[in-house]
Structure formats: C-alpha cells, structure tokens
Amino acid sequence: MRNKLLSALSPLVLIAASCGGAASGDSPDRIQTVEGQFAITELGTFNEPWAMAALPGGQVLITEKSGKLKWLDFAGAVTDVPLPFAVDYGGQGGLGDVIASPDFARNQRIYLSWIEKGPDDTRGAAVGTAVLLMGLDGRPSLGDFEVVWRQNPKVTGKGHFSHRLVVSPDKKQLYIASGERQKMQPAQDPASDLGKVIRLGLDTTGKPSGAATRITMGHRNILGLQFAPDGRLWELEHGPAGGDELNLIKPGANYGWPLVSEGRHYDGAFIPHHDTRPEFTAPALYWNPVIAPGGMVFYTGKMWPEWRGQLLIGAMKPTAVVRVKITGDTATEEARYPTSKRIRAIAQAPDGALLVLEDGAGGRLLRLSRK
Fold first, then answer.
1. Catalytic-labelled residue, pool 160, 163, 238, 274
2. pTM of the entire structure?
3. pLDDT digit string, tens, across residues 303-348
4. Residues 163, 180: contact at Cβ < 8 Å?
5. What is the pLDDT of residues 214-244, one digit of tens each?
6. Catalytic residue at 160?
7. What's the CATH architecture for 28-370?
8. How far is the CA of 352 from the CAs of 69, 263, 321, in angstroms?
C-alpha cells in the first residue's frame, strides 16, 4: 500500500461536530459530540466507486458504477477483474455491491450486485456469486459464476435500486436490499420485490439453496445493510425530503413507506408520521435534516476499542462519517466527523482501521487510523 500520509494535507481531515439532525425521540442536546482525529493514508483513486469488500489478506475489491470491478492488492497495485455479465449503467444504476463470503479465506467466494436491462426500457437489480481466482500471472478473474436473484418486476426508471448485500453470521443466508425504484406503492405490494428485504438460503459452499423470500416490506431506498455483533440485522435507508431511517430488521415487519415517513414529499406534501400508524414499525433513529447515507459498518476492531459494537455511517449530505450507538432497539448519534467529499462506502480493515470510499469521479479510497 502506498504510505503517503495525508493527515496534514488532505481536505478530509476529520473534526468532530455536533449532530445536525434530530434523532427519533431525542433532542440535539442529548447527543454528545466526541472529538476525533485520524491519520489518513490514500490508497487509490477510482471512477464513481460504489462499494468495496475488505479481504482478510488486506486486499480490497472496489466496484465502479460504470461496470468495472477493481482489485487493489497489498502492494497498492490496481487491476481490473473481468465481469461475466453486462451492466446497465445510468442514473443511480450500474455495478453495485461487492461482499466477501465469511468463509472467503477458505472458498474465495464473493457476491456482486448490478443493474441489468429488461424489455421496453425497463431494468432491475441482479445478484450473482463467483469465486475469485488468481492466475499464474497474478491477475484475478471470476470463476464458477452464477446469477442467484433478479429483482421482479423490472420497471422503468433509473433510481432506488438499493441492491446492498450481506451474509448472515451463521453463513446460511444471503440478504438483499431491494429498493422501491421510485414507484412508491409497490413497497406495500407483498407480491412485488420492490421495497423489500429479500432472504436467500445458502448451502455449505455459499451457493443458493432454495427460493428467495421477502422478509420485510415498506422500504424506500436501502443503502446500508449489516449484521451487528449480537447477530441482529439492521438497515439504513434514504427518506424523501427528510426522514432518513435506521431500522432493526424484524422478519414479517412492515416499515410503512410510502404510507408513513418522518420526512415529506419533495413537493412539500405532508406524509403521516409513524406514530399515527402503530401497525407500521418505526425507525430506531431518523434524521431531519437528512444525512443521505452511502453505507455503514459495525465496528469490531482493536484500534478504537471504545467504539466496538457501534455503527459507523458514510454520509453524503452533509458529507461526514457519522457514529451511532445502539442500545437494545434504540439508537443515538454519538458523533459526526465532517469530510470534504461524499462518502459512498465505509468498511473495516483487518487491522481495525477504517476504509472510506469517496463518491464520484476521482473518488479516493482512504485508510483512517488512530494517531
């Protein structure tokens, strides 16, 4: 890895700031600001990066929306990994998430999501699995590729695909975030994939086993999907004009979109709040104004032992890393570290450092460590 230290020069030196949004049930004076300062190392620059997977050996896989998968090795070299599928790129769509199997050190299996074309100007998300192979020349490739899920139905438009992925701690299920594609009402249709969290069984090799099932509904645009250290699944989604949500996933629950929200429609039209419809599951935390989350990770490392079990969120508006403490079924924003660029994804490196991936053209992959 390149060791060009940017802590003094980088525009992304992070400084603690007070919370800029209201938490569900909390007033801003109850949210403490924790001063933070990081050493920053630039690891690479990418074109519209969207997601990354930090691998056990220190390498990183990065997706670029236009349809390229990049391999960053431990020496800092970046190599293209050819894809065995076509990507429909445009709007919010393109190559999406990449995650490694919990058994990656043994099976080298990864999971990818992307957008594919359908008939009559429709499109939808798709998910596949493959084995990451290293050739004799040291160049990576994908083998044993299989499409495991397709968003149904495909619809027009180029937004709210979500397509975040996570494997359960017991390695038996793959969870898929399926956005409502800016169509709103399908989120309440139990026969549609749109606005749902999807579960797909996995066999002992990490391949799909059985049919996919819709376990929750009433979601808008999920951009974070992670298991906490206690084994519970959480999701983070964009609200409309206000009302970004952090939700504990409870199988069978309905989270209410578009019938309830803590935000408003973009034209200012009122949406009833969750407390008016108790049959819908309310968020553990919401933000007004929004933070526009790009991704999240539960911290489990040794570099900041005081943060273990807390949630770190990459935010795009305002640009920041946001730290959240979870107690039971509730959550509280603890600190916010402003950045100069939108943060599209965040991950934990094997040594406990943080990896943050900037959004857009020239987005940098940065390593944040303790000074």
1. 160
2. 0.91
3. 999 999 999 999 999 999 999 999 999 999 999 998 989 999 999 9
4. no
5. 999 999 999 999 999 999 999 999 999 999 9
6. yes
7. 6 Propeller (2.120)
8. 24, 35, 16
